[in-house]
């Protein structure tokens, strides 16, 4: 039985003030909620503050990126060990914004995945196609390629205790979510693709949907059998909307 995970990706948003207010509001909105794992991923600058403010709550801490290097002369980077040290649990990798703006390749992302597993952290691997790829009927091929980068180097076992977020790029931040049926079809494809190598691992891997999830569309998305929660961008910055999404899961 898979336990849904709803995770907020705060992206490049926040301040000490916002972290304080948002976590205070989330703690109150989500107190007593069970049956769904919840995590927030603030900017790296605020992880320590967030960890302290989350103490004693059921909300877990996440981060938005990790470097492949473990330590040394890599200016500006953050290692898996540092994220672990600060108390983060779920680490987003392969987000389309990093693939696009930072030219991160499938191979680099597979290395990040391996580094996180080695550190005992849970990767949240984002995959998904662009609008042009979607219109060209390449959705499954793109997702398969992005998954295969991990599968061929680490094997299907890598997805044990890992999370995959299917995030069609055309749905991110656009207000145009995939329909529940569209998302379900891709989620089923992803699970079947992993099952070709290891059925047990495929059955337990958490498959989140991400892309304009909001308080109005979450419940219907979560009725789908292969949608195990959501990775939420914009709506995760509003405690009331995020709480509705969590409760729907
Ligand atoms: C995201 O960036 O991971 C995301 C899903 O954003 P939004 O919910 O704003 O579409």
UniProtKB/TrEMBL annotation:
Assigned GO CC terms: cytosol
Active site feature: 95, 167
Record-level Gene Ontology MF annotations: triose-phosphate isomerase activity
Binding sites annotated in the UniProt record for substrate: 9-11, 173, 212, 233-234
Main location: cytoplasm
The protein's enzyme class: isomerase
Gene3D superfamilies on file: Aldolase class I
Record's keyword terms, sorted: Cytoplasm, Gluconeogenesis, Glycolysis, Isomerase
GO biological process, one term: gluconeogenesis
Catalysed reaction equations from the record: D-glyceraldehyde 3-phosphate = dihydroxyacetone phosphate
Pathway where it operates: Carbohydrate metabolism; erythritol degradation; Carbohydrate degradation; glycolysis; D-glyceraldehyde 3-phosphate from glycerone phosphate: step 1/1; Carbohydrate biosynthesis; gluconeogenesis
UniProt-listed Enzyme Commission number(s): 5.3.1.1
InterPro entries xref list: Aldolase_TIM, TIM_sf, TrioseP_Isoase_bac/euk, Triosephosphate_isomerase, Triosephosphate_isomerase_AS
Subcellular location(s) of the protein: Cytoplasm
Sequence similarity: Belongs to the triosephosphate isomerase family.
Alphabetized HAMAP family for the sequence: TIM_B (MF_00147_B)
Protein name (record): Triosephosphate isomerase
Gene, per the UniProt record: tpiA
